[in-house]
Design brief:
The chain has two domains: 2-34, no CATH class; 65-154, Glycoside hydrolase family 38, central domain (Substrate Binding Domain Of Dnak, Chain:A, Domain 2, Up-down Bundle). Helix content is 66%, strand content 5%. It contains six helices and two strands. The protein has a two-stranded antiparallel ribbon. α3 runs antiparallel to α4. The protein is flat, with a radius of gyration of 24 Å.
Length: 155
Amino acid sequence: MDEVIASLVDDHWVTIKYSTVENFLASVKADGKAKNIEWPTWKGDMFPQFTDMNEYWSGYYTDDPAFKKRVRDFSSYSQAIGTMYALQSFSSQQASYLISDVKDYFTSATVNYHHDAITGTHFPVVGHGYDELMRKSFLHNDENLASWVVQAAED
């Protein structure tokens, strides 16, 4: 990346630097203030979901942050399951039967990244189904992960 930046800086009249989103937005805000630019602010919901006459769901980005945290934790745990499966497959004859467990786990994680699930725009009853899917996969694979850790420690 440094070579690309150096090439652009040398060949053009541009300044490029590493930064963060926070610094970038602060710079844009300061530049706008210096030039008397008033940035528009959207206060409504960007993608309301229409369900019935005069009934809209909103909160596309903010609904159910606890669910989003559970999905994120579940996804992290799925990476641990995948890693343990990979290690187990190198050291054990039982790895072939474990693939269906791991596949089910990753399927559960994938379902929860569906646009309706992760955004929180799903109906409450559907959200309970997503949670139940994660719970069942977690409980089932928690036993597998524990046994794999014990076996790895014995090997």
